[in-house]
Amino acid sequence: MGLPTGLHWYNWHQIAFDDDYPHYFPAHDDFEAGVAELQRNGVFVMPYINGRLWDTRDHGLEDKAFSTVALPATARQESGEPYIETYNSKEPDGSPVRLAPMCPTTPVWQSKVAEIVHELTRQCGVKGVYIDQIAAAKPMPCFDPSHGHPLGGGHWWNEGYWHMLDNIHAAIPHDAMLTSECNAEPFLRWFDGYLSWHWQFQDQVPAFSAIYGGTIQLFGRAYRGGTTRDLALRMKAGQQLVFGEQIGWITPDILESTNGMPFLKRMANLRWKLSPYFHQGRMERPPILQGEVPNVTADWQWSGEWPVTIAAIQTGAWRIPHENRLALVFVNVDKKPHAATFDLDLIDYGLSGEHFAVEMVGPDTPDATWQTGRRLKQTVEFQPDRPFALEIRPIPAPGKSAPSE
Q: What single DSSP character describes residue 120?
């Protein structure tokens, strides 16, 4: 890729996935050495842990610590019984793994998650930890009076996680990050990134990015297979770029794809050049194109067959207000070129000034620069495999500095 890359490492532990939680240690024998080697080579490791669940049979078929340690700290139904969840994981006898959601206000659960994150960051040296489900799963009304919170539902659920995450942040290295699944608003302040893998729907709009872009980093879509896999990859990666997301969450076999890898590499390189817009800036209204821009359709395979249709040319706009600069982003996700025109008043995008420098920024081509007034009108033939951005800054009048907010 030629860029710093993130590795979301699942199954780094000897226990099976979604089984025997939260006993992740010992890790596989080569885990620490693998982390060190990867990070020396610019691949930053972020292992998976679950932030909600304790296995009721947490040592194969045996109850190792659930009844003695975890049970008093589980979220309880009105009947007094703990909630139980099952997924696709199986016990050694083929029965479903029965997992209990923990009450986040309890010292038992707060200290357990903090202990795991501390060992991963301090002992294993990872640069991030993904704590699954916290920003995805619904709160569980808890009726255990011994926990000290109001019975049933309430703000206490989120506050329990806030306290947990405060303590974790205080104990981990300053350059270690925390991420979680999906994008629940109550946890924005505590997580550095959200896995937006579920943004897979027809006619979706980047409302979350428009509001919170620059506040938290959004990363990942579910990239899957099927007969239209290559087109679906281009569509998702193109939408990710203009929505401001970090591109990817894709399995390493993409490296063997002669169709997908060149496009993905160009997209990642362009995003790297534009990265200040996505962590310092905010989203503006995407440019509207004039002309015959066709739609493309592919099976995104979110849940079975899942057709999604989007415009062949994806557009986006991001601005850094305090620097008074703007990036207009364009991606042709089709395999054929398409011509279209944009006609913009740059003042409508929050820029100030009368004269502007426009720089065409590509992933792997020399940048070109020209000047324009506040109206920017251009007809472009958008080439496949050639995403680009127009970076726009005001030109100060003689003796004056460029205005900024």
A: I
Which helix (H) or strand (E) segment holds residue 113: the answer is: helix 107-118
The pLDDT score that the predictor gives to residue 80 is 97
Identify the residue whose tokens are 């008043």: 345
CA distance linking residue 299 with residue 46, whole number of Å: 29
> Tell me, what's the pLDDT at 396?
84
Element (H, E) at 372: strand 368-373
Asked whether 4 and 39 are in contact (CB, 8 A), the reply is no
pLDDT digits (tens, 9 = 90+) for 283-340: 999 999 999 999 999 999 999 999 999 999 999 999 999 999 999 999 999 999 999 9
What DSSP string describes 23-82?
A: --PSBPTTHHHHHHHHHHTTEEEEEEEESSEEESS-BTTB-SSIIIIIGGGB-B-TTSPB
Q: Specify the DSSP class assigned to residue 369.
A: E
For 293-338, give the DSSP string: --EEEEE--SSSS-EEEEESEEEEEEEEGGGTEEEEEEEE-SSS-E
Max alpha carbon distance in the chain (Å)? 79
Q: What is the pLDDT of residues 182-230, one digit of tens each?
A: 999 999 999 999 999 999 999 999 999 999 988 999 999 999 999 999 9
Report yes or no: 77 and 142 within 8 Å, Cβ to Cβ.
Answer: no
E runs forming strands in 164-312 = 177-181, 193-195, 217-219, 282-284, 295-299, 307-311
Give me the amino acid identity at 18. Answer: D
Give 165-183 pLDDT, tens digit per residue: 999 999 999 999 999 999 9
Q: Domains of the chain, with CATH numbers?
A: 5-280 (3.20.20.70)
Token representation of residue 365? 């081509």
The answer to whether 318 and 346 have CB atoms below 8 angstroms apart is no
Asked if residue 302 lies in contact with residue 286, where contact means CB atoms within 8 angstroms, the answer is no
- With cut-offs at 50, 70 and 90, classify the pLDDT of residue 405: low
Cα separation values, 148 from 52, 114, 164, 394, Å? 19, 21, 16, 57
Whether residue 159 is predicted with pLDDT greater than 70 in this model: the reply is yes
173 to each of 100, 210, 250, 262, how far by Cα in Å? Answer: 30, 30, 27, 35
Q: Distance between CA atoms of 52 and 285, rounded to whole angstroms?
A: 38
